[in-house]
Design goal:
- This protein is mainly alpha-helical.
- It has one domain.
- It has 13 helices and no strands.
- The protein is globular.
């Protein structure tokens, strides 16, 4: 008997839980730094190679993101039970539930396209023109940069981008825990999307705190570091020092975010459950043999 979105039980948490997800995720990352970094680099290398495939690469890469996301979920699942993240975990999503994971990628692409298209209702299509229409051949790099800066600085374009982000919110929430629900609870596509949307909506306070923390550590902190470096060091040294300081920080941060997908999922859908002993590196539904 198939289950529906309303059959999947979840826990409603207080807002402070969102920051706790990041704290717990970083603690997991810190215990296996190099393994998580190796997985992260392999993941982005795979996306880069897929993106280079003629004609379909640019569309295939985002479609496969939920499939690769399962790899990080499997690695976190394994580490939580005493194992270690391994590169082979990246391929877990390709070995099972692929028929449900690929449509999630299609939903991601469609959601992004709809959100970008929605900006035209506000700015008359200026952002779409900037993103998808090739600039005149006679424009040099400085002219292109100036065109982009002027377009993005227009109030209507900025409001349009905000409107597009709001239009993307349902897609983001529906996909938040959908891959985890597919792989751990054997949910179908619509069930996973519906259950994720319901749980995310109920936990909006925690997700808001989480988003604010991500903005702070992923946006404000790197910007502050960049400004300090620019003020202290000569212009000739800025690129090298910024790269040495910021690239490791951003790798640590992005890896932590991937782990947070699992930590938040487990906290919302399996709160208080004990862990089963790890017999091997395989991924089994958390709802069976907890």
């Amino acid at each position: 008997m198939s289950i529906g979105a309303r059959d999947i039980v979840f826990t409603r948490h207080a807002g402070a839980r969102g920051v706790e997800w990041l704290v717990r995720s970083y603690a997991m990352f810190r215990k296996a730094r190099m393994r998580w970094i190796a997985m992260l680099l392999a993941y982005y290398l795979a996306l880069l190679l897929i993106d280079l495939v003629p004609l379909i690469g640019a569309w295939l890469a985002p479609v496969l993101k939920p499939v690769f996301a399962v790899g990080f979920l499997a690695a976190a699942w394994t580490q939580e039970r005493g194992g270690a993240p391994e590169l082979r975990h990246l391929l877990v999503g390709f070995r099972g539930n692929l028929k449900a994971l690929l449509p999630l990628g299609v939903v991601l692409v469609l959601g992004v396209l709809i959100s970008i298209g929605a900006t035209a209702l506000i700015d008359g299509g200026k952002l779409i023109d900037l993103l998808f229409h090739a600039p005149p051949a006679e424009m040099d790099d400085s002219a292109l940069a100036k065109r982009m800066q002027e377009t993005l600085a227009e109030p209507r374009v900025e409001i349009g981008m905000l409107f597009g982000a709001l239009c993307a919110l349902p897609t983001v929430l529906a996909l938040w825990w959908a891959p985890a629900l597919v792989v751990f609870q054997d949910a179908g596509v619509l069930t996973a999307l519906g259950a994720s949307l319901r749980a995310a909506s109920a936990n909006w306070r925690a997700i808001l705190r989480y988003a604010l923390a991500v903005f702070f550590f992923g946006g404000m902190v790197p910007s502050f570091i960049s400004v300090v470096i620019a003020l202290v060091l000569p212009v000739s040294m800025y690129p090298l020092v910024a790269a040495v300081l910021l690239l490791p920080y951003l790798c640590f941060f992005v890896a932590t975010l991937h782990i947070a997908d699992y930590v938040s999922y487990r906290d919302v859908f399996h709160a208080g459950e004990t862990l089963a002993p790890l017999a091997d590196g395989s991924v089994q539904p958390l709802g069976h043999g907890k």
